Structures
1.
Amino acid sequence: MKIFRYDFNPTLPPLAKGRRGGVSGQGLLEAVIALGIIITGVVAALTLAIGSLSAAGASESRLIAANFAREGIELVRNQRDSNWVGARSWDKGIEAVGEANAYAPEWNATTQQMELVPLSNTTTQGRLYYVPETGMYSPIEMGQATRFFRSIILTNIICEDGTAGCAVGDRIGVRVQSNVSWENRGVL
């Protein structure tokens, strides 16, 4: 038994028939909707790809900066250890003048060693350079200038209560903070 159902709604006008017997404009409407869906998918994929590339670049910069900061702390630690081995005062070359000061490592051609120089007295303002021949980075002004800048902040640690076997007001240590900043699209 075949059932034929025909719903009639007298309030709806009859659909206009095209030349081929289909509904007029239906193919164009489907094409516009399909094109809109495709464009939305392509834009979403491009946005995702651009965001991923941007995040990868930022991640690379943070990784390099973290290593430069670690190296800055190691430079100060190396100076302290060299002082101990050389039977000099532990803080020779790492004295913070005043409350806290910014320094940058510079090569001293006379002593053939890295020295911490007040950032205001440096010629490079803490910029780091890439040396292609060695594949290494250097605070010495040679090779290609990078977008990275490093400053090392030294802050004196002062004995405040005399309980650690020191006189009140004596300098008992140095707090070392290594800051790395970089230019991103020309902005520091």
Note: The radius of gyration is 34 Å.
2.
Amino acid sequence: MQACFGAIGRALRGDDNRVNLVRVLPVLLSVLLMAAHFSRADNTALVITSLLFPLVLLVRRPWAVRLTQLMLVVAGLEWVRTLIAIAGRRQALGEPWVRMAVILAVVAIFSIGSAAVFWSKELKKRYGLE
């Protein structure tokens, strides 16, 4: 696994030899959160898909960024769907639900907001978005 992340880190080096990995950390964290979510639902196929998805960023093309951004928005919507489902169940049972709703709302906003990392000048240049 360390070799995989090392390869990703080397592949994300910019033309000026500065590592762009830090710039995409929010994307990687969002992916890990999504994989954990699918793992809790015992959906191995989506766990593996989530974990492998960042490899698309090794392709230095605009479509790779757009696909990743789409995945992050869909992940955010999945968090919203989960929030609504759990909040409804907890409300029906008279259990506390506000803290859970706040946490999942923050995770949804973070996941969708992670798509904005590609607005940076360096990543736009790297993926040909300029």
Note: The radius of gyration is 17 Å.
